[in-house]
Design goal:
The complex is a heterodimer of chains A (about 300) and B (about 1200). Chain A is built from ten helices and 14 strands. Chain A has about 300 residues and is of the alpha/beta class. Helix content of chain B is about 45%, strand content about 20%. Chain B starts with a helix and ends with a strand. The chains are: A alpha/beta (about 300), B alpha+beta (about 1200).
Chain lengths: ~300, ~1200
């Protein structure tokens, strides 16, 4: 199974160009969508999740025309939106049951078992009788995860899933996702690079509505080998370096500022070679994009 | 900081289209009103009179409650909804700065919108004359103060009140729905208070209970004449001032309270910030296997669960519960207070409750549906649950359908309110004729369609407009406009085919249910339901799923959704809708003749211009009528065959006759067996909507030329065949006189001659059409004195009634026949038919008199009261006024459709809603069933038992004599000292009207103004108190016997009565007769002070300081004190009321004496036995006193 996005574009009524000629091929397994806030990740995901129309382009899930055969796609979809609400006066169990019914789980007994299982998996079993209006942000997020997993989705879209989760919960969620990734396409958006490097077999970097890079994380890191250098500098020196070099990130370590630059050859001047990581890949693309816009 | 927030608020508002929408709506509404002058009560008032401006400002600010709820509610709620509260933590904001800044900013916006009132009214007064809608003389001077005073004194406090209320409510509850409930509760409260106020006469209660001051302004306008309304500002003192202070104060209190309780910390603390503790868990069991199906069963299940969840969301909403609760309470109060007459409530009959529900309460239903449809459609989006929900796999029609279904179920619940509230109210008042089938029939065939149409309208609006508040405002605007145009509102454009959800007017009655109107109403219901179907289809095309998007995207979606199946379905709907519409059109505009009210006026003008010349044609008198009329109540038809004897009693030969069909479908005339020919002197232009009717619609008038000229004194017999039948149905209530049960129709004869009553009355329209203004009132043409021989036939289950004596009744061809004879009939001929039960009795006077009560078998609560009234009245009146002139008298019940009460020769009728179902449950209530019936009985002597003229004063004389008889009977029933309230009732209307007369009052003897009737009765009653019953009765007997022969030439008028009275009044009392009949006289008596000193055991000495005053009002309206008066005036001392065994109380006079007192102050002293409670001057209220309330002093 494979999700193919072809030249997808979308401009909002206020003139913001949310997606610009986006083309991606997403195989099954976990696929990370990496990009800063406002990059168009959510727009892309909402379009795939049939919540929003595209101006042009196409999306196919194997032979299924996502933009036209919406109902068919929805039958295979699990979607966790980035920010969502719930009915405050309804219990978690009741709303999950309701959603399960809408996801085609017709048998009440089966539905009850499934809801029980999911609540257990996201650690809400004890809160199942509570009104959703009383849930904290993290609990609500876990509820969102549970509802996305109902009905064995073939395509799972999770938009910033770990926001609002504490580290332990985040780990548990990763486990859950990687299990699922064995049978389905999981499209995950995040602005945390680490999420992608730990989880995803494939990923894409997206910024200002454009795909800047798509590929496998390992391969991307490997391609950067020998081009990353680092140096500790003082804060006042930074503007000078920004001017003359391709600075991809800065980091404070025990009061000193460490900058990472990308260069084809060792720049000398106290710079030492460093092992590239996915963050370097990400930042270098984002920086390039911004630089291009600046010029 | 404060100013920053204010200016931020204002800038933010001004950028939004809602501001301009609101401003524009108020502006246009106001301009329209002042350009067309729709608010005036009479033509003498200026369209822009300061009083009118005040009234308009008050009324519109009441409507602006909707705007202030949206503007003021949003001011704080915005921060909650968009979670922008957090940002404020970053700024150094104080609570006061935030709270008052937001308030002031938004309130400024409200005031700016309010300014549209001033601008609009001013522009309207310029635009009206400019467009030629009104002459410049109809507008007064445009002084700035005329606008600013009401703006600052009326509009500003009103806006402040509603703004503070809504701002405060949201600040306290932090919930937007409080605004809906607040708004609806305000509406219901207003509705209820108006209802309660109709029960009280206390001006302060009426004036203060209304936060918007509308009642006070109406009250004050009623007290001054047009000149004052035109030229002076409404004075802000007394009740109005108190009202303004009271409600502004309440607004301020709410505001201050909400500020004090407004907690900045609580407000800014986001609920989501608390983290739940991480709970370690055991590894879950294996994921259970589930079957997933998306078949037809799935869709059904999904629809069900979605609808259920949606409804659950609403029903669990506490604000919804509150709103529903208040609605139920309002309806309960409405139902249990019910309607009533003369302070006596009616029994809670099912049909009455249903008619109650069908009134203003429907606005409440509409508001609830509109608001909660908005909630249903926007909830998922505003809570962002839509992001999950809309990506679930149910098809669009299921998601869309579930919302529609939820709205419709809501409509169903609301439509059940009448039975849910009505039945308990009925049971609680021990009324057991529940008529559940009537409830259900009404709910499912009349209310449910209406409410479903409302629901779909709200749904359509919210889907297509896709903005909650805009859709609310637009919905209310459209609904009000439809109401305004329709028959229920102004009726200026009532073509039901074009006004959504409108059906012909109808009434539900016990006698006839919905009657023959059912078919017409159901056709219109079908028509509008099909239209609603089309709206559902369009909603389905534009229904948006997912995240809010622009027009372009929705258009794109709609085109995608308009597939073959949808198109076919839409086409079918359209065909069905158009077909139903065509059929209705065929009925309304082809078979029947629909005209707008404007066209009706134009036709009346044409009538007057073309036919007025015939008004001078000499008219023959009808001297004998022999009629056979067959009623077919089941198909609204009547067939008449008759012979009318005409006699020329004029001095001129009669060649031509103008006849008015007056509702007959067709008729023909024969003279000497030969068909008479006629010309049609008038045809009307075709009605605007009746495209397929003839270009010229022949009007109902015919001009007959007699075969032989009728010379003065000659007679002729004319044979008449006529038929009345209804073809199809019309736009409004048709064949009101030919009901299935409760027919109340005419004789089937065309009317003779030109009828001035058919002319256009409105001075404005007359002026525009260059017709002279009419002076005085149109005096109804008096029926000819004739011998009647009428045979009425009807269906075998019904009884037919006509005036006269029932001489024979038989059955033939499965029909019931009744023959009535009447010698010298002097009333109109009316024919009734219904399934009556009959109560019959006889009274033996100098001849036997038969009394019959014809009633709906269910309505027997008060029939013995009517019977007692007739029997007592016949005995007393025949003793007092002379022999009863007829052999019978009857009372018959009519349906709610007809008039409340009608008086004919030997026959009275009361409608179903009057008297028959009065629920006498308190001994203090006056038995108006009895009193009103004896009043009508008197007319058999004075109106029908003698010949009276039509000169000014006669009408009031007859009414006065009838009402006088009623007072005498009341005194006989309750005791002479115990009918003060009944006497005062007679004068209330007179005293009210005379306070703001446009032209000075005329003496009773020559006045033809109907408001004088009560006065005529009281002065006769007062005379009786002065000269004694025997004297007065002798005078009345002599007067009557002089005219009872009913000759054509000897007619009684008020001056004749006066002559006979004068003969029997001693010289010492002649002043009273002159005062009451020939002059306009008012007393100004009052008790200033009274002191009590105990003298011995149970004895008290009382010293009274009282003032006696009397004025004559001359023909110019100037008052002249009568300083040389010495009149007989009663002074009395009363103890505590005594109670009769039945609980009714009666005054307890300890001292009563008639003094002869002069003008000015007097001190009287007397001793009484028993503890005194009040001192009273003229305790029976028989002198007409300007201010009767100060005639009593309660002793301490």
């Amino acid at each position: 199974m494979q999700l193919t996005i072809n030249s997808l574009s979308k401009t909002y009524a206020n003139g913001v160009r949310a997606l610009s000629d986006v083309s991606l091929t997403i195989p099954h397994g976990l696929f990370g969508l990496l990009g800063p806030n406002g990059a168009g990740k959510s727009s892309l995901m909402r379009t795939i999740a049939t919540l929003q129309e595209a101006d042009s382009g196409s999306i196919f899930l194997d032979g299924l025309d996502v933009l036209r055969q919406k109902t068919e796609l929805r039958q295979m979809l699990g979607y966790l939106p980035q920010e969502f609400g719930v009915y405050p006066k309804i219990t978690a169990e009741r709303l999950l049951d309701h959603i399960a019914q809408l996801k085609g789980v017709g048998n009440p007994g089966e539905r009850k078992a499934l809801v029980g299982y999911l609540l257990e998996s996201v650690n809400l079993a004890q809160d199942r009788k509570k009104h959703l209006g009383t849930f904290s942000g993290g609990m609500k997020q876990r509820f969102g995860i549970a509802q996305a997993l109902i009905g064995n989705p073939k395509l799972l879209i999770v938009d910033e899933p770990t926001a609002g989760l504490d580290p332990a919960e985040r780990n548990r969620f990763y486990n859950l996702l990687s299990q699922l990734g064995e049978q389905t396409i999981v499209l995950l958006s995040t602005h945390i690079v680490e999420d992608v490097s730990t989880l995803c077999a494939n990923f894409a970097i997206i910024s200002q509505g454009k795909v800047l890079y798509a590929g496998e994380p390992d391969k991307a890191v490997r391609q950067m080998e020998g081009t990353i250098f680092t140096k500790a500098i003082s804060r006042q020196e930074l503007p000078a370096y920004l001017d003359k070099m391709s600075v991809i990130s800065t980091q404070l370590k025990s009061g000193r500022m460490h900058i990472r630059v990308r260069a084809d050859q060792a720049p000398g001047d106290g710079f030492v070679s460093a092992a590239p990581n996915l963050e370097d890949v990400y930042f270098s693309h984002i920086v390039n994009e911004n630089a291009m816009i600046a010029t | 900081m404060f100013w920053k927030i204010v200016s931020f608020e204002i800038r933010n508002r001004v950028r939004r289209p809602a501001f301009y929408l609101y401003f524009g709506a108020v502006l246009l509404f106001t301009i329209g009103t002042f350009a067309t002058g729709g608010l005036r009560l009479n033509e003498k008032e200026h369209i822009n009179a300061p009083y009118i401006l005040a009234l308009w400002f008050a009324g519109v600010t009441l409507l602006m409650t909707l705007i202030s709820s949206s503007v003021m509610g949003d001011a704080i709620y915005r921060d909650i909804e968009y979670d922008t509260r957090d940002y404020y933590l970053a700024y150094p904001i104080t609570k006061a700065g935030y709270f008052w800044g937001r308030y002031c900013g938004s309130f400024m916006i409200m005031l700016s919108i309010g300014l549209a009132l001033v601008i609009g009214a001013y522009a309207g007064t310029l635009l009206g004359p400019a467009l030629g809608l009104h002459g410049p003389t109809e507008y007064g001077a445009n002084r700035l103060s005329y606008y600013l005073q009401p703006f600052f004194c009326i509009a500003l406090p009103n806006l402040f009140f509603t703004s503070s209320l809504f701002f405060g409510l949201v600040a306290i509850t932090q919930n937007i729905k409080v605004i809906y409930s607040g708004g609806i509760l305000l509406f219901l409260g207003y509705f209820l208070s108006q209802f309660f106020l109709s029960y009280t006469n206390n001006e302060w209660v009426i004036g203060l209970a209304d936060p918007f001051g509308l009642n006070v302004i109406r009250l004050l306008s009623g007290k001054v004449n047009s000149a004052t309304q035109n030229n002076s500002l409404i004075s802000i003192n007394g009740i109005l001032l108190t009202n303004r202070i009271l409600w502004t104060g309440i607004g301020s209190l709410v505001l201050v309270y909400s500020y004090v309780t407004f907690s900045f910390e609580r407000f800014f603390r986001s609920k989501d910030k608390t983290k739940a503790p991480f709970v370690p868990k055991s590894r879950p069991a294996a994921r259970p296997e589930v079957k997933i199906r998306y078949d037809a069963g799935y869709n059904r299940q999904a629809l069900l669960t979605l609808t259920k969840t949606e409804l659950g969301n609403i029903l669990k909403d506490q604000y919804f519960r509150l709103i529903l609760c208040c609605g139920v309470i309002t309806l309960g109060v409405l139902f249990s207070m019910g309607m009533g007459s003369n302070g006596v409530p009616d029994l809670p009959r099912t049909v009455m409750l249903l008619n109650d529900y069908n009134g203003g309460f429907l606005f409440y239903i509409f508001l609830v549906l509109l608001f909660y449809t908005g909630e249903i459609l926007h909830r998922d989006r505003s809570t962002r649950f839509a992001l999950i929900n809309d990506a679930l796999p149910m098809p669009n029609w299921v998601l869309n359908g579930s919302r529609l279904l939820a709205v419709m179920v809501l409509a169903l619940i609301l439509s059940l309110l009448p039975v849910l509230v009505g039945v308990p109210v009925q049971l609680f008042s021990h009324y057991h004729l529940l008529h559940i089938p009537v409830y259900l029939l009404y709910i499912f065939t009349l209310m449910l369609p209406k409410l479903l149409e409302m629901a779909v309208f709200c749904y359509f609006l919210h889907v297509t407009v896709n903005h909650k508040f805009a859709a609310h405002s637009l919905g209310i605007l459209i609904w009000l406009t439809i109401f305004f145009l329709s028959d229920a509102g102004s009726g200026i454009f009532s073509y039901n085919l074009l006004l959504y959800s409108s059906v012909p007017t109808y009434a539900v009655s016990d006698m006839d249910g919905l009657g023959h109107m059912a078919a017409a109403v159901q056709w219109f219901n079908l028509y509008w339901l099909l239209f609603a179907g089309l709206m559902v289809l369009i909603s389905a095309l534009f229904f948006y799923r997912g995240v809010t998007a622009g027009l372009k995207e929705r258009w794109q979606l709609a085109r995608q959704r308009l597939d073959r199946r949808t198109r076919m379905f839409g086409l079918w709907l359209l065909v069905a809708f158009a077909g139903t519409g065509a059929y209705i059109y065929y009925n309304v505009s082809y078979l029947n003749d629909y005209t707008t009210s404007g066209e009706d006026s134009a036709r009346a003008i044409l009538y007057e211009k073309q036919l007025k010349p015939y008004a001078t044609l000499p008219l023959p008198s009808i001297t004998r009528v022999v009629l056979h009329t067959d009623l077919y109540p089941d198909r609204q038809a009547q067939k008449t065959h008759g012979w009318v004897t005409l006699q020329n009693k004029t001095r001129y030969p009669i060649e031509k006759l103008l006849l008015d069909a007056d509702g007959l479908t067709d008729y023909s005339l024969r003279q000497n067996g030969r068909l008479m020919t006629y010309a049609s002197p008038l045809s009307y232009p075709r009605g605007r909507f009746n495209w397929f009717r003839p270009q010229k619609d022949t009007a109902d008038f015919r001009l007959y030329r007699l075969q032989t000229v009728l010379q003065p004194g000659d007679s002729m017999v004319m044979e008449i065949n006529s038929v009345t039948r209804q073809q199809g149905f019309s736009n409004t209530f048709y064949a009101r006189n030919l009901l299935r049960n409760g027919t109340f129709t005419g004789s089937g004869l065309p009317a003779l001659g030109y009828d001035e009553a058919d002319e256009e009355r409105s001075p404005r329209i007359r002026l525009q059409n260059h017709l002279p203004l009419k002076k005085g009132r149109v005096i109804e043409k008096k029926p000819d004195l004739l011998d009647l021989d009428i045979t009425v036939s009807t269906t075998p289950d019904q009884t037919a009634i006509a005036p006269g004596e029932l001489v024979r009744q038989w059955q033939q061809n499965d029909r019931n026949y009744f023959r009535y004879l009447h010698h010298r009939l002097s009333s109109a001929i009316r024919v009734l038919s219904a399934r009556y039960a009959i109560l019959q009795d006889t009274v033996m006077l100098d001849h036997r008199v038969t009394v019959r009560i014809y009633y709906n078998p269910e309505h027997k609560a008060n029939i013995t009261r009517f019977m007692a009234a007739y029997k007592d009245g016949l005995r007393s009146f025949s003793k007092a006024y002379g022999s009863y002139p007829f052999a019978n008298v009857s009372l018959a019940e009519t349906s709610v459709v007809g008039p409340k009460e009608i008086e004919l020769c030997t026959l009275d009728t009361y409608s179903e809603q009057f008297a028959w179902n009065a629920n006498f449950n308190d001994p203090k209530q006056n038995d108006y069933c009895y009193l009103n019936t004896v009043r009508h009985l008197g007319a058999q002597w004075w109106r029908y038992g003698m010949a009276t003229d039509q000169k000014a004063g006669s009408a009031n004389m007859i009414e006065g004599l009838c009402n006088y008889g009623m007072l005498v009977m009341a005194a006989q029933k309750y005791g002479t000292k115990n009918i003060r309230s009944i006497i005062q009732e007679q004068l209330t209307y007179y005293l009210l009207v005379r306070r703001h007369l446009e032209s000075p009052e005329q003496p009773l003897l020559i006045s033809e103004e109907p408001y004088m009737r009560g006065k005529a009765a009281v002065v006769l009653y007062g005379l009786r108190a002065l000269i004694g019953a025997d004297n007065l009765n002798a005078a009345l007997r002599e007067f009557r016997s002089a005219y009872s022969a009913k000759s054509d030439s000897v007619l009684a008028g008020s001056d004749d009565l006066f002559r006979y009275l004068r003969k029997h009044v001693p010289d010492s009392l002649q002043y009273y007769l002159t005062d009451s009949w020939q002059k306009v006289t008012l007393y100004d008596n009052r008790i200033n002070q009274a002191q009590v000193t105990p003298v011995g055991k149970n004895c008290y000495q009382i010293t009274v300081d009282l003032t006696v005053g009397k004025t004559w009002t001359d023909s110019q309206g100037h008052d002249h004190p009568v300083t040389d008066m010495t009149d007989y005036i009663d002074v009395g001392v009363f103890g505590a009321d005594r109670a009769y065994a039945n609980g009714r109380k009666t005054p307890n006079p300890l001292y009563l004496k008639r003094y002869k007192l002069g003008y000015g102050r007097h001190t009287l002293r007397f001793t009484v036995r028993g503890k005194p409670r009040t001192v009273e001057v003229d305790p029976d209220n028989i002198l007409i006193d300007r201010q009767p309330n100060d005639n009593i002093k309660v002793l301490k």
